Amino acid sequence: MSAHRVIYRLVPESHEDIYGYLARVAARNHLAGLHSILSEVLGVRQAAISFSDLPALADFCRLYPEEMVNLSGIVRKTAHGALAWQVCGQWVSKEPFIATRRAKICPLCLRDADFVRGEWTLNFYTACAHHAVTLNNHCPRCRRAIPWNRRAARYCPCGCDLAMTDAPSAQPHSLVIAELIAHQCGQRVPLKPYPCISFLEHENLAALSLDGLCKTLWFLGHCLCELGRYSVGHGRVKPMPSAADAIILNALHAIEDWPRRFGELIEVSKHRAFAERAGPLLEQLLGPVHKYLQRELQDDELKFVRVAYEQHLRNMWRSFGSRHRRLRTNRQLELDLGQ
Ligand SMILES: [Zn+2]
Ligand SMILES: [Zn+2]
Fold first, then answer.
1. Is 50 part of any domain?
2. Which residues surround ligand 2, an ion (CB under 5 A)?
3. For residue 23, how far is its CA from the centre of ligand 2 (angstroms)?
4. Nearest listed ligand to the Cα of residue 137
5. Count of structural domains, the chain
6. pTM for the complete prediction?
7. Which domain range does residue 234 map to?
8. Residue 178 maps to a domain
9. Alpha helices by DSSP H, the chain
10. Which of 68, 170, 182, 338 could pair with 187 as two cysteines, CB 3.0-4.6 Å apart?
């Protein structure tokens, strides 16, 4: 452990981002910035902070480790060696869902209280659920991306007071997802209905965990649209804020008139996949989507997506089963679908 400790102790806010917290500690104690704390305590300037780092960091900040365990942005290794990120007391399991090195802010939240909210690091959180405004990721004065490692949550390095910048009204699709995320993060926000989605589907989405919601958006808004255009890098691309918005729109479009529209999307993708790919039938048809579904959407809470998907696979199988029934790959498909 470091021989030094800070002079002034700051108590973390509920679900505060851990990097934002360290930046506040650094500023209050006249240290150069959060990197100086990481260098001093962990010996590296840039680090993913895991639970094993907390005792040393807490000691340096004059906290008990228990006071730090709920901070957002802490990372852990799962039993399978994959990484997971804590956000607002929940675990998010995929890198494309989180952007710890990109900043977004709600000016109105910063006016209320000057700290970085954990949910702002979620890529699908593109609007503020409390103020119904779009989150900013660029400084309006210097036009640069707001740095995640800035010295104060409220100020861009150019001196611009981010809390006093304009906050455009949020788009309805961003807002409905932001409300669902805030709801999952245990915040009190009313869940307003979204015109194109039925009450039942909205309830289904509201019942999902944070990770389940992100997976559903990723599956319906990204994987499904990428069907037939699959490349090796699939699934590793982090959506930029504009891409996150597009993924949300696609996903809500797929959920509209559930599951009919979803079935239509799979049909369209099926034709594209046939035109562009060769290989085993199932792979040709729905390779990446199917794999993703098998691997990631196995939780009970995601049953509504899975059931609709499997139903459509069955329908598709029936629709061209007679022509191909003798091929081994099709028999495999039959087996895969339990028919
Ligand atoms: Zn806000
Ligand atoms: Zn600036």
1. yes
2. 139, 141-142, 156, 158, 160
3. 17
4. 2
5. 2
6. 0.84
7. 188-336
8. no
9. 18-28, 34-42, 54-60, 107-112, 172-184, 199-206, 210-218, 224-226, 241-255, 260-276, 281-296, 303-324, 328-336
10. 182
